[in-house]
């Protein structure tokens, strides 16, 4: 499983109210964009996990007889499956980009 550090802070404040090109005396390095990307990936992983848990609960409710609506159960399972496949696709693209970056000559 992937462990992400959610306490990664960016160089520039998130709510920067200055103009688009102003740095307010701080230099934004490549780390600020990376930190934002890590945070976004972490949020998406949490959303996918939540969808999977919702699908699991709806399946358990169907099996226990609490819910008789098969359509909502199939819909929740399909949504969780599609979200997971998309997340795996993004992960694969990130890994491929990492490999390409590491193989670049200096």
Low-pLDDT segments: 1-27
Terminal-residue CA separation:
31 Å
Strand content: under 5%
Structural class: mainly alpha
Largest sheet: none
Q: What's the total count of β strands?
A: 0
State the shape. elongated
Quick recap:
It is built from two helices and no strands.
Q: What does this molecule look like?
A:
This protein has a domain at 34-102. The chain is built from two helices and no strands. With 106 residues, it is mainly alpha-helical. Helix 1 (30-64) runs antiparallel to helix 2.
Tags for this model:
106 residues; 2 helices
Summarize the helices and strands and which ones pair or pack:
Blueprint: H1 30-64, H2 70-102
Helix pairs in contact: 1-2
């Amino acid at each position: 499983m992937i462990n992400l550090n959610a306490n990664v802070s960016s160089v520039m404040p998130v709510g920067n109210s200055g103009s688009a090109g102003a740095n307010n005396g701080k230099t934004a390095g490549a780390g600020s964009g990376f930190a934002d990307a890590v945070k976004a990936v972490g949020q998406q992983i949490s959303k996918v996990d939540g969808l999977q848990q919702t699908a699991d609960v709806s399946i358990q409710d169907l099996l226990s007889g609490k819910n008789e609506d098969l359509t909502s159960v199939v819909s929740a399972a399909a949504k969780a499956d599609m979200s997971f496949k998309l997340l795996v696709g993004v992960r694969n693209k990130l890994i491929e980009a990492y490999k390409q970056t590491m193989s670049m000559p200096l």
